[in-house]
Amino acid sequence: MESQNLADFPRPVHHRIPNFKGSYLACQNIRDLEVFARTQELKVDPDKPLEGVRLLALQSKKTLLVPTPRLRTGLFNKITPPPGATKDILRKCATSQGVRNYSTPVGLDSKVLVDLVVVGSVAVSEKGWRIGKGEGYADLEYAMMVSMGAVSQGTPVVTIVHDCQVVDIPEALLEDHDLTVDYILTPTRVITTGCERPKPAGIAWSKISCEMLGKMPILRSLRHQEEQAGKDVTLRDGPRSPPGATRSPRDLAPPELGSVPLSSVQIGNLPRDARVSELKRALSALGVAPSRLTWQGPQHRAFLHYRDLAEAQQAIACLQGFRLGANTVRVVLARQQRASDLVGSHTAEPLPDHQPAIAGP
Predict the structure, then answer these.
(1) What's the mean pLDDT when you consider all of the chain?
(2) Compositional bias (Basic and acidic residues) at which positions (predicted)?
(3) What is the pTM of this model?
(4) Is 32 exposed, middle or buried (0-12, 13-18, 19+ CB in 10 A)?
(5) CATH, range 2-192
(6) What is d(CA 297, CA 311) in angstroms, rounded to the nearest whole number?
(7) What pLDDT does 259 receive?
């Protein structure tokens, strides 16, 4: 696309969903789809080549949802133009800047029912098989919408690309969590793929890392909900345990006062007004609840005591980049502490077991 000068701003197109000359023309083709005509609410990715679809949705007074960048602050933003918005204002609302300035967050408790999903692609085949940037955000967004009940297997998925991006893709490259498309729009064609490959049926937790979970609060919330519902939420790099496993009284015993064992994790830089209950809830949502927790609020720190060193190291991996309130906490393996270092602390009650359920065969 660069060598043939098919690419458009922003350039170069490497490491992004590529914008291309004629993207607005390709976007106009969505008006020929019956599914767009009957759509009331649609999700459109924030990629530049999809700007024309976002504008058409706003001009048609449809509810427009746009994913938050890298899902850091939630799943969706609803684009809400100001009352009496002119065509120029609507155009601005459809841009990435407009998405920031004219949007309101949509929470998990919102009753969202998406009629149409529009995604960007790096390459797509006429069979409906799609390749994105390789980071998996479009696949994850769709899976999260499934978990929320916002989409179903029958919800159509559209992608908008240049004709040169329609290529043969070996089926061997596809995995179960990959999103397929039903319609491909280019500047010259409208392709109905007739794809029968199932779309993701929900979040594949075994593909999610602790690091990813730590960066996405909404993903942590969904994981907690699914665990409460008895689903298997074991992470890619998370420990497994047999069904119905429980901790013995010895495992729940508090650490000796004389020292902090090597299987403990120190959390520092806690907010001044942080409460132990907030930390306990956050740890449970992340799936790293310790056997015991020693709270040292005045020192803005806490110690998490785990059954063994492997659990402690796993917790450290999950808590990288973790924020409590406005603070990004510091997480390290605790050095051994003298009893005098623990003066003024108190040991919280054991947190409930946070073991992942293991699905049957």
Answers:
(1) 82
(2) 226-239
(3) 0.67
(4) exposed
(5) 3.40.50.10420
(6) 24
(7) 43
**All residues at 6 or more sequence positions from 12 whose CB lies less than 8 Å from its CB, including other chains:** 2
Contacts for 42 with CB less than 8 Å, ≥ 6 apart: 36, 57, 62, 63, 64, 65, 114, 115, 116, 117, 118
Task: For domain 264-333, give the fold.
Answer: Alpha-Beta Plaits (3.30.70)
Neighbours of 238 (CB within 10 A): 20
CA dist., res. 78 & res. 110, Å (int): 11
Residues of the chain with CATH 3.30.70.330: 264-333
| Cα distance between residue 234 and residue 145, in whole Å | 19
Residue type, 91: R
Angle between helices 217-228 and 276-286 (to 10 degrees): 80
What was the pLDDT predicted at 68?
80
Taking CB atoms within 8 Å and a gap of at least 24, the contacts of 233-236 are 233/205, 233/287, 233/356, 233/357, 234/205, 234/206, 234/356, 234/358, 235/205, 235/206, 235/208, 235/209, 235/210, 235/287, 235/318, 235/356, 236/205, 236/206, 236/207, 236/208, 236/209
Of 234, 173, 227, the residue nearest 206 (C-alpha): 234
Which tokens in the block code for residue 113? 């029912």
Burial of residue 24 (CB within 10 Å: 0-12, 13-18, 19+) is middle
The answer to whether 53 and 66 have CB atoms below 8 angstroms apart is no
